[in-house]
Amino acid sequence: MKKGLLVLGACALATSMSAAATDNPFARDEAVLRLDGLDLSTAQGQQRLAIRMDQAARAVCGDRLASVHLNMDARARECRTAVLADIRTEIEARTAVAARAGQTQLASAR
Fold first, then answer.
1. Which long-range contacts (CB under 8 A, 24 or more apart) does 100-103 make?
2. Which of 3, 41, 60, 77 has the most C-beta neighbours closer than 10 Å?
């Protein structure tokens, strides 16, 4: 699993919800989720990934907006949920591609 993560490197997030984030002056259009140094075969590595994913989603969608307006806070929460789903989908897709590439290399090495 760690070898697959080395292939993944860094994952840039540009989500469909970033359009909603542009209405939010406290958010950014994209964030970079760094996967280097994570070993997802351990609980600690999975926890660190979850923290990084949450930080990236909060950077894209904004955070603690209830003091500004309750509607903005609700939209930011919806955005974070969508961003986290997009991150999971992207990681799964890249992991599958990396696994297939590794299988192809093994098959050609025989």
1. 101/7, 102/3, 102/4
2. 60
Residue 3's nearest CA partner among 87, 102, 90 is 102
Cα separation, 84 vs 10, in Å, equals 16
Residues 15/41, Cβ–Cβ less than 8 Å: no
Cα-Cα end-to-end distance for the chain? 22
Residue 22 in 3-state DSSP?
A: coil
Q: pLDDT tens for residues 12-27?
A: 444 444 444 446 555 5
Q: Is 37 exposed, middle or buried (0-12, 13-18, 19+ CB in 10 A)?
A: exposed
| Residues across the chain | 110
Domain locations in the chain as residue ranges: 2-92
